[in-house]
Amino acid sequence: MSVIAVMGAGKIGEALLSGLLHGGRRPGDLLFTERHPERAAELTSRYGVEAVEVDEAAKRADVLVVAVKPQDIDPVLVELAPLLGPSSLVVSLCAGLPTALYERRLADGVPVVRVMPNTPMVVGEAMSAISPGRYATAEHLALVEELLACVGKVVRVPESQQDAVTALSGSGPAYFFFLVEAMIDAGILLGLPRAVAEKLIIQSAVGASKMLADTGEHPVTLREAVTSPAGTTINAIRELENHGVRAALIAAIEAARDRSVELGKAHEDQPDKR
Fold first, then answer.
1. Taking 90 as the threshold, does the pLDDT of residue 197 lie above it?
2. Which of 115, 77, 85 is nearest to 272 (CA)?
3. Residue 153: CATH number of its domain
4. Of 57, 173, 256, 262, which residue is 20 to 30 A from 166 by alpha carbon distance?
5. What is the Cα–Cα distance from 35 to 79, expressed in whole angstroms?
């Protein structure tokens, strides 16, 4: 069984550790890196997984899952460059960073798989999209799918689509939280206590999501089933359209895509391994 090192123990890194353990991985087969000693001690106590330095992770792990912030990637790659070879697998969870960046900065032949997860990983309901780099094989992709299946669902996409994935599902939970927040505020405006408004909207969101997932019906079909002629819902839909909510969502997702592209380009001028 492969030794897996999670590099960066923020929310996503911790969620992956927890998911791997629940999926049957032994604590002894996992490592993690964390620059804050108090946080490292907390996670070791909670999960029984050893915290190590970056160089130790590179020496001991077969799979290195890079879960640091995109802006923190450069020093990590500087440390990894002299330590990794083709027998290691690098799995990047960093938004916007292409596999070509890793391939430029690491030794020739190091396989890289790019992943865009999202924060529902913390409750085992992530949506992750994976793409192979130049040296990644079908076996590498299958292994990454197996690992990520412990924390949600996985799809394969061409890397050219990863910036769109980042904008749509990587940032997607924030859009839903924003809408739920606005709907709770509307409930308060209409005279409901906050606790009641929260319960009504959160469960409605959970139920609507389950209907989408379980019925296989198109969202339009499900919406139309709620929208009676001259009823309350059609009046609400009219106001959403009048205020350009659909267009605003599309523009927001395009803006997120553009920022993902920028994050990748920010590292193009960095020196490569040669």
1. yes
2. 77
3. 3.40.50.720
4. 57
5. 14
Is 245 in contact with 237 (CB distance < 8 Å)?
Answer: no
Do the domain assignments include residue 132? yes
Contact 132, 160 (CB under 8 A): no
User: Residue 216, SS3?
Assistant: coil
| Nearest Cα to Cα of residue 63 among 21, 5, 114 | 5
Helix (H/G/I), strand (E/B), else coil: 173: helix
* 230 DSSP 8-state letter: T
Sheet bearing 112-116, strands edge to edge: 50-51, 30-33, 4-7, 63-66, 89-92, 112-116, 126-132, 152-156
pLDDT tens, residue by residue, 208-244:
999 999 999 999 999 999 999 999 999 999 999 999 9
- pLDDT digit string, tens, across residues 46-98: 999 999 999 999 999 999 999 999 889 999 999 999 999 999 999 999 999 99
- Which residue, 125, 119, 120, 90, is CA-closest to 105? 90
In this structure, the answer to whether residues 189 and 256 fall within a common structural domain is: yes
Specify the DSSP class assigned to residue 95. Answer: T
Residues 13 and 125 grouped into a single domain: yes
Phi, then psi, of 222 in degrees rounded to 5: -65, -40
* Domain range enclosing 221: 172-260
Task: Give the amino acid at 265.
Answer: K
H/E run at residue 188? helix 172-189
